[in-house]
Every structure is written in C-alpha cells, then in structure tokens.
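Record type: monomer structure entry
Structure origin: computed from sequence
Chain ID: A
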Amino acid sequence: MASQPANALSSSAFALLDQEAHALLTRLDKVKPFALHETMVPAAALPPAVLSTIDRYLIIGRRKVYQMVRSFLHWLHSPARQSVTAETAYRRFTTLRLRFNAALSQFDIFADALTQRSEQETGVWLAGLDVMAADALFLPGDYYQMPGVICYLDRGHGAAIRRARTRLPGGGENPVAIIRVPRERMVGSGIASSLIHEVGHQAAALLDLVESIRPVLRELQRNGGEEQPAWAYWDRCISEILADFWSVARVGMTSTLGLIGVVALPRYFVFRLNLDDPHPVPWMRVRLSIAIGRALFPHPQWDQLESTWLSYYPPEELDEQKRRMLALLEKTMPVLANLLANHQPRALRGLSLKEALQVDQRQPTQLAGLFQAWRASPRQMHRASPSLVFAVIGQARIEARISPQEESQILSRMLTYWALRDTLDPSIHCARPAQIQSSATPSRLAAYSRR
C-alpha cells in the first residue's frame, strides 16, 4: 500500500483537529443553564439567588472554554500554525479537551444535586433540608458570610460535603456548599445528625476553627507526658471532632443517637483503630460525642446512653496495645470536650463556641418543655427554627414520648412546611434564619400549617 505524501497527511491531521474543535463547540452549546431545563415544583426549587449563583458560575466557566476553543480554531487557520507539527497541535488540542471535560464535570456535580428536585415528595423534602442546613450554619453576630447550601440524597449510610469556596475539578471555587445525605436516613431525626455534622465542617472552615484550636492541642502534646499519644490522636482527628461538636451543640442527643446509627457496625470495625483515618475510632467517637453532650447539656441521660453503648460493645478481648491507647483516649476525653466548649477562636470576637452556639437555650429540660407546649398548641412548632424542631422531636423520641412512625410524620410535614414557606414568602430569602417567623407568611401557608 502506497503511503500518502507528508503534506497530504499533515493537511488531513489538521483538518481532523478543526472538526473536533467545532464538535466541542457544538456540544458546549447543548449545555443549558439549570434555570431552563430542570423541572420541579416551586416548593422543591432552590432559592433564586442560590440557583443564579450556580448558573452564573457555570456559564462563566463554559464561556471561558468556548473562548479557548475559538482561539484554538483561529490559531489552527493562522500562518503561525504552519511552523508546528501535527503532534504539537494535537497536544494543544488534548489540553483544551481536558478543560472542556472539566467544565462538564462541574455541571454534573450540581446536576446530581438538582435532578432529584423533580422527584415527587423527595424534591420538597430536599428543599426543607436546605432550610434546615442554612439554619444550622447561621450564627447571630455576622461572624461570616453565609454561603448557599443545597442537599441531595445518595446511597450509603454516611453523609459528605463539598464545601463552598473549595476547589472544584478543573479549577475554580465552588460557589455553594453541596451536602450529600444518606437516603436511608429519610425521614427521621437521625437525618439531622448527618446533615449538621457536614454543616459543622463548613462552619469550621468559615471560622477557621481547626487552625484556631490546633496550637492548643500541640501544646498539650508537648507537655502531655504519657498522654501525648492521645493528644496527637485527637489532633489528627480534630476536623471530624469539630463537626461532631457542632452537631451536638445544635440538636443535642439527637446528634449522638444519629451517630450511633452510622457507626454501629460489626465489632471489628467499631474497635478498629486506624491512625490514618481522620475519623476517631467509632467506639471512642460515640463516647466523645456523649462527653461533648455532658459539657454542653449536663443531664443524667448521657450516663444512661453511655451505659447502653458500652453494653452493646463491651471493651473486652482487645490486644494490650489497643486497650492502652483507648484508656488514654478515655482519660483525656472529658478535657477535650470542655476545651472545645470553652474555646474562644479569634473569629468569634471573645465568645466561646458554646456561647456563640447558644446552647443554654437547648438544654434537655427545655426541649422537653417545648414538646409539651407544642403538643398543646402545634402551631408554635412552626415559629421555631428548623434545627430546634429536630432537637425537640429527637429529645421526645429519646424519652419515648413519640413513636418512630409519629416522629417521621412530624418531620416530613415540617420539611414540607419549610420548603413551602420559603416558596410563598420570597422575603425569607433576604432574611436571616433566626428572623424568620411563620406569622409573616401568606394565609395559604397558615392554612397548611393547621393540617
């Protein structure tokens, strides 16, 4: 078979690159803003400001890729291209295609979170979870600028967050926080534990809590003597510990029970001490959550829950090294819990974490009293913040005042209520969560709340 002349082969190679570049432009034109192609009932939709933030970010990214492709095509037909080989030109095209794929990957990240909004009932619940996540993130005092938060469901029993202002695949900062929630937790008070733990990661980043408390932990390591390995371990896990702290501070024992629902696995995994894992060993993580609860909400219920946990997983038949390490963690655990509660990061301008999170307003006896009041007058529940509602209902479940079935019914109704409230009263999107009152909602919403 006769070979083609070199100039003919080169011409064919560059012509193929021209076609491939135009194909990229064609496919890029098919990607539309979410505001044009996502179908969902209004109550399931994202707040307009959040949706426009996402669409604006993605449009800017696609526009940059579009301009890069046009620039490549201009170069491909310019005299400057005559001096390069087909290999060099194709190398430049492959870099361009990587940028194109990164732009589509970013689109898919948000598409995964938004497509479920079209599912009947689930979409509205997700909008309600968005409201609860924003409420759990909010701190009165203007300590940080609140990012948008959107939730979606996925398989598995653990939640995860892609924090706002972190790097996305292909570059650029994520414009909103995206929280993946385990579908198996819908709908019960345990959803609050998973969701607010992830919110805690975002809050810790906004307040720079990890770097704020790390010098204290490093000092304890230097002067810890025989306790040094324990403080080194807590330092390694501090990001996850702070997220657990935020969750307990927001919803009390509801958080710890939800955590048990995640980490209650076969005994091998509960006692598995992996020094490379940023999560504390599950057996001790539950106990630390209880210790945090004692520090924030003193009450005998924590002792009872700890006894129950130890009855499920008695610390027996462990090797000597693991038993010694767990004993050190157990010894330092109350100190760590109080250290977190009373920590005063610079971002809070003199307040401790427990003061900023206003834990004095969510003590177990107060939660029980609110449940009794809401039983007598259900409309009062609609005036409370979402995280407080989950704390109250979770406390009632702990005290066996409601059944799991009733808990699910109440929380499903409240998620729908919060989604509907934010849809019918646009002014809420401009208000702080603590300022939102159901008395400001239209009569249609008041009628719904009486159901």
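Annotation 1: Residues 1-9, 429-451 have pLDDT under 50 and may be disordered.
Annotation 2: Residues 176 and 404 are 33 Å apart (CA to CA).
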